[in-house]
Amino acid sequence: MNTRLAAALTAAFVLLATPAIAALPVGASAPDFTTKASLAGKQFHFSLKQALRKGPVALYFYPAAFTKGCTIEAHDFAEATDDFTKLGATVIGVSADDIATLDKFSVSDCRNKFAVASADLKLINSFDVAFPNRPLSNRTTYVIAPDHKVIYAYTALDPAGHVAGALKAVGDWRAAHPKAP
Q1: Which of 60, 115, 152, 162 suits a disulfide with 39, CB 3.0-4.6 Å?
Q2: Range 136-161 burial, b when 16+ CB lie within 10 A, else e
Q3: Are 92 and 51 in contact (CB under 8 A)?
Q4: For residue 181, what pLDDT is reported?
Q5: CA-based angle 50:55:59, to the nearest 5?
Q6: What percent of the chain has pLDDT over 70?
């Protein structure tokens, strides 16, 4: 293998293995949205504005339901949902999947613990999480405070680290705002 090809492959591996910087930085205002969602196979309209009235929101974007990494991440969020709830936070997963697919995913992989929502490209682009050259979202997790400010942002294709980082951010926010919704 020539050295140019080896260097290109090494650079590509490093870029894929290293978490990217999330598009909306900490401190940015999260765009409000309403979309179709499913919890335990039952559809409803999810509104970020309404969810934030109850407390922080752990909003995570993922590429596609029923894929290996997205299944792992859904299981991880399902296991941690009770911890988020104790801190007054809502968990919602978002992908470009259609609502019929998400009805099934919310039962099987989300284990009826948290909702998943369907996003069009406008919503995906508003959070700057479009997957390069594909009509999908990247794997990005945000924690949004009730004032619509992003307090945590993490992008990485590897599902590891998303739940732990979001839970820590919610816990830190709650400790600083014990009387907030």
Answers
A1: 115
A2: bbbbbbbbbbbeeebbbbbbbeebee
A3: yes
A4: 87
A5: 75
A6: 88
Residue 147 pLDDT class (50, 70, 90 cuts): very high
* Predicted model pTM: 0.87
Lateral strand order in the sheet of 140-144: 42-47, 34-39, 115-118, 90-95, 57-61, 140-144, 150-155
Q: What is the pLDDT of residues 30-73, one digit of tens each?
A: 999 999 999 999 999 999 999 999 999 999 999 999 999 999 99
Give Cβ neighbours of residue 18 (< 8 Å, ≥ 6 apart). 156
Q: List, in sequence order, every beta strand (DSSP E) within 90-137.
A: 90-95, 115-118
Cα(91)–Cα(76) distance, rounded to whole angstroms? 12
